[in-house]
Amino acid sequence: MLKQACDLPQPPSGDTSMFDRSDKGIMLKAIMVAAPILLCMGLLPLLSFYIEKLEENGRAEIVEYIAIAQAAMEVKFDAADLNGWQTGYAFDIIRKIEGSTRDDAIARSEFLRSADNFRRDIQTLRDMPLDAEQRSQLDSVQRDFNAFMELDRDIIALYRSGAPAARDKASRLVMGEEIQIFTHISQNTNALAVSITLDLMKKVAQSNSYGIVARWMMLVMWIVASAMAILLVRLLHKWLSQMRGLMQKLEALAGTDELTQLPNRRTWDIQIEMMLATAKRYGQPLAIALFDLDHFKQFNDTYGHPEGDRLLREVSILIKSRMRQSDLFARFGGEEFVLALMDCDLPQAVTRIESLRRNLPDNQSFSVGVTLWLEDERIHNTLARADKALYQAKNSGRDQVASLPPPAPGSAL
């Protein structure tokens, strides 16, 4: 029984694969952004050699188109920024992580800030002289953005409702319709930026002076390199923030039982060593107990595994609410739990455990084996003795606490 219960849970494979894809995706974006910067910086010295030959013909017209190109690039960068922050807080919806963290609130706030920037920059570009096709593309981006924000509000409302069905629907909307809308936004913003950039290149090519071409190509490269550098910094900052957030969540998941939200065996192994050291230092007794939910397999067979999961969650919440802050209650696996009671001798431990296991949900009961830790004893020996006491409780009819005192120091186990 104890050997099976002590098996360590494996971390969820879904989170790891999602983390890897996100990590690689951001690094790929960073490389793609860094490449134009290096290209521009490499071409700038060649263009600067001819800068003395520049002429001023067509300057005003090119300045106007550069401003339009800058505005189009801002819209494109805003779309990338919006997508990045939306991905950060959408991870929780897709993976169904319970609760909320400060990093999640920051990601949501940054998403709303990016949405305001996107809306503002679209209006700025709308006020500039565009041809009919470009204005039509901009109108399409505006419509998709409005639909995206409306859908996002619906998704957040569904997710925050707390209902499992609503959260499942929110997850499906994130992975389906929301991605499709944003893909369309990205395609149209890219097409618009390309169209305006091509117009800028045509105007430059039409200039009567090759000097003008060199001068304004240099300026465009500076603009592109600067904008790309800003985007690169944003991506790296976002990557580091996401890395910190995911590492904190993975660390919490690795130490918590997913079903009951109790500490798992990994956390037990860490915290029990600290409790042993404290008990030894202050000469306090430390009681160790193994709990086994009676007839749990029969309950599962009768009512189904979802009801069995519900029972485990409710029992865990109830017992944890009756514990002292200094106690440690963890799930070992299946229907078996372990409890450490600090500064508690064997009779006190039996009394405390009897109070913990009263009035369990669905008229269920626990069989419990309890013993005391012997100073300098390895904890697995103490657990083996508690397991032996648990067998005694089960063989005596279940629904009771059996205690087994530790052997006298120096005696054979």
Automatic annotation (TrEMBL):
One GO MF term attached to the UniProt entry: diguanylate cyclase activity
Chemical reaction(s) catalysed: 2 GTP = 3',3'-c-di-GMP + 2 diphosphate
Domain of life: Bacteria
SMART domains given in the database record: GGDEF (SM00267)
EC number, as in UniProt: 2.7.7.65
Pfam short name (any one): GGDEF
Keyword Transmembrane included in the entry's annotation: yes
Keywords noted in UniProt: Membrane, Transmembrane, Transmembrane helix
Transmembrane spans: 26-51, 216-237
Occurrences of domain GGDEF (ranges): 284-406
Protein name as catalogued: diguanylate cyclase
InterPro entries: Diguanylate_Cyclase (IPR050469), GGDEF_dom (IPR000160), Nucleotide_cyclase (IPR029787), Rev_trsase/Diguanyl_cyclase (IPR043128)
